[in-house]
Amino acid sequence: MAERTKYILDEADLPAQWYNVVPDLPEPPPPPLHPGTREPVGPADLAPLFPQALIEQEVTTERYLDIPEEVRDVYRLWRPSPLYRARRLEKALGTPARIYYKYEGVSPVGSHKPNTAVPQAFYNAAEGVTRLTTETGAGQWGSALAFACATFGLSCEVWQVRASYDQKPYRKLMMETFGAQVYPSPSDRTAAGRAILAEDPRSTGSLGIAISEAVEQAAADPGARYALGSVLNHVLLHQTVIGEEALRQFEMAGDTPDVLVGCTGGGSNFGGLAFPFLREKLAGRMNPVIRAVEPAACPTLTRGRYAYDFGDTAGLTPLLKMHTLGHGFIPDPIHAGGLRYHGMSPLISHIYELGLIEALAIGQQECFAAGVQFARTEGIIPAPEPTHALAACIQEALRCKEAGEEKVILTALCGHAHLDLPAYGAYLAGDMVDNELPDAALEESLTALP
């Protein structure tokens, strides 16, 4: 009998709860601070931006939270997602390692983002909110929120980072097809956007700027709220359906990962896969090395400072203790638009500081080479973001080849690249360059930390 290539759970196996890693950590993460008082923020401080249910999830100390049945009903459109054994990639590399990938590209928008967009739209609609504003980099999050808003009858406005808005026109069309209004950021529709354009009319934008614009719009309208696609605790909480399913699929495979690898921008995809495995590691039931991979052009964990900083460029958000490159940092317009954020999830930053995970940064040419090799062996063209994780997987698999080790490697393939093909076109044409972050530029950016 042929060995299995994919491990598929039934709809009945869809997780009924999200997992909160905070109660299992050796010490709790530092709280967000009010930028004016420097005191920990309370629910009232967050109420203009988020519904009460999400504020409670942001600060909860409960280990597990029930997933509402209305959310699980939408999840069933694509969840549980498959776990694949990358046998053809293993063969091409000549490695004794066993490589698995959890594939989130089966969702309606082709990425992991609806795992949190759906509950966010649900909780907002349940509390009478009629309009959601948000930012998006590559467009995957904006597409996911547009889909979720259409599902629950909300209007949706998206500020898309200018570089990605220009690079990825089909993402804009997808968002508009789901009913969203999409604006390039920085825009002239907000005070934050106008201020940036006055300084630099040709600004390529950043996630920090787009967040400022979306937050400004939400705060001015009592019927609106803001939705964030990564970084915050409740977002990573929702994404843990990925890791919970993967644990059950590894039981089916009769295997246990030795190395877990995920790409990190704000941290939601990485946390979603890693946190349930980190729980098992902290409990002594397995001992995987957990490795976060980021772009060399935007290296928050590997070169950023662990400090309190704003989550946005204009300084409208609470202060978050996180690895940051400085809230004014404008990354080079690399093709992995979803990883071009100046900060890292405070929870992942805290876990990194505790020494529970590793991090490395890789240039985009090596990442796209990995993406092309994966496409030609496994048949899926990966989004630019997970090519970072694939490049690290290939590095690990080749180390196993040299050492003759049969390690088990797991990664999250968080989306496909069907709407990102111009990035592959640039790579295949030889037009792609590696953007290294100069020390001087980083130091200048960090001088503005609050």
From TrEMBL:
<comment type="function">
    <text>The beta subunit is responsible for the synthesis of L-tryptophan from indole and L-serine.</text>
</comment>
<dbReference type="InterPro" id="IPR006654">
    <property type="entry name" value="Trp_synth_beta"/>
</dbReference>
<dbReference type="GO" id="GO:0052684">
    <property type="term" value="F:L-serine hydro-lyase (adding indole, L-tryptophan-forming) activity"/>
</dbReference>
<feature type="modified residue" description="N6-(pyridoxal phosphate)lysine">
    <location>
        <position position="113"/>
    </location>
</feature>
<keyword id="KW-0663">Pyridoxal phosphate</keyword>
<dbReference type="GO" id="GO:0005737">
    <property type="term" value="C:cytoplasm"/>
</dbReference>
<dbReference type="InterPro" id="IPR006653">
    <property type="entry name" value="Trp_synth_b_CS"/>
</dbReference>
<dbReference type="GO" id="GO:0004834">
    <property type="term" value="F:tryptophan synthase activity"/>
</dbReference>
<protein>
    <recommendedName>
        <fullName>Tryptophan synthase beta chain</fullName>
        <ecNumber>4.2.1.20</ecNumber>
    </recommendedName>
</protein>
<keyword id="KW-0456">Lyase</keyword>
<dbReference type="InterPro" id="IPR023026">
    <property type="entry name" value="Trp_synth_beta/beta-like"/>
</dbReference>
<keyword id="KW-0822">Tryptophan biosynthesis</keyword>
<keyword id="KW-0028">Amino-acid biosynthesis</keyword>
<comment type="subunit">
    <text>Tetramer of two alpha and two beta chains.</text>
</comment>
<keyword id="KW-0057">Aromatic amino acid biosynthesis</keyword>
<comment type="pathway">
    <text>Amino-acid biosynthesis; L-tryptophan biosynthesis; L-tryptophan from chorismate: step 5/5.</text>
</comment>
<dbReference type="InterPro" id="IPR036052">
    <property type="entry name" value="TrpB-like_PALP_sf"/>
</dbReference>
<dbReference type="InterPro" id="IPR006316">
    <property type="entry name" value="Trp_synth_b-like"/>
</dbReference>
<dbReference type="Pfam" id="PF00291">
    <property type="entry name" value="PALP"/>
</dbReference>
<comment type="similarity">
    <text>Belongs to the TrpB family.</text>
</comment>
<dbReference type="GO" id="GO:0030170">
    <property type="term" value="F:pyridoxal phosphate binding"/>
</dbReference>
<dbReference type="InterPro" id="IPR001926">
    <property type="entry name" value="TrpB-like_PALP"/>
</dbReference>
<feature type="domain" description="Tryptophan synthase beta chain-like PALP">
    <location>
        <begin position="77"/>
        <end position="415"/>
    </location>
</feature>
